[in-house]
Design goal:
Rossmann fold, 16 strands, about 25% helix
């Protein structure tokens, strides 16, 4: 199965503490699989952990969350070498790809070094849902704000750019995020774009943002744009997903 067209779910959420496991899939991850239109079998989800160095411990946490959710999980690793021979074929066999958070600067560099951007783009065009959190959200856009270089946030401007906007993540929970994104849009370092509070996701069909959704009630999404000499922030009310808290 595949989505009706190129689909990206860019989020600031997706996992939460489990009742009997370290983590469980929250509604945003499950919604990525729903967008893929899977029926009659277990959905296939590829986890990409490049942004935190493909940590084996974290992969085990994801495996446990997937088993609890009835999801067939696999991992695309680049450390110490790519773990599949045919990356393109492997990605096309997935229903959705979930890219974890961490260093978006390192993620982008390694994806390009290993030529992963090409197969990912082909999977996206073929209807495999691309999704992720934080670094796994910013990467699809032109850029955003990042702690990849240190605790003082800095801009990243060399995202894949398939979505022609900037992207702000953790907009309500990390105090540097909101003012820096607005300043970068205001001075032209980044284009106008979308931001998400923790627990919120943005659904893009091709390059159009068509819906904001949330797994945490009361949280928001935002359109941030330059209007002459000022920056305007417009709240977008997200739709609560089933299971939202």
């Amino acid at each position: 199965m595949a989505a009706d067209g190129p689909t990206i779910l860019a989020t600031s959420g997706g996992l939460r503490r489990g009742r009997r496991t370290q983590a469980e899939f929250a509604p945003l991850v499950l919604y990525a699989l729903q967008l893929a239109g899977v029926s009659g079998r277990r959905p296939r989800l590829c986890h990409v952990g490049t942004a935190t160095g493909d940590q084996a411990h974290w992969a085990a946490v994801i495996d446990e969350a997937a088993r609890a959710a009835g999801v067939e999980i696999s991992h695309l690793n680049l450390f110490p070498m790519p773990n599949v021979d045919d990356v393109g074929g492997y990605l096309l066999d997935q229903d959705a790809v979930w890219v974890g958070g961490g260093s978006v600067a390192n993620l982008l560099s390694l994806w390009r070094l290993h030529g992963l951007d090409g197969p990912l783009r082909e999977a996206w065009r073929s209807g495999v849902v691309l999704a992720g959190v934080s670094a796994g959200s910013i990467c699809w856009h032109v850029g955003g704000t990042t702690d990849s270089f240190g605790p003082q946030l800095r801009p990243v401007t060399d995202g894949l750019g398939w979505l022609p906007y900037s992207n702000g993540v953790h907009y309500d929970s990390e105090q540097q995020r909101r003012p820096l994104l607005q300043r970068l849009i205001g001075d032209g370092t980044l284009p106008d774009g979308y931001a998400t509070d923790d627990g919120v996701g943005l659904v893009y069909r091709a390059t159009e943002m068509v819906e904001a959704v949330t797994e945490v009630r009361g949280k928001g999404a935002y359109w941030v744009s330059r209007d002459g000499q000022r920056v305007v922030e417009q709240r977008i009310e997200p739709r609560p997903l089933p299971g939202a808290q």
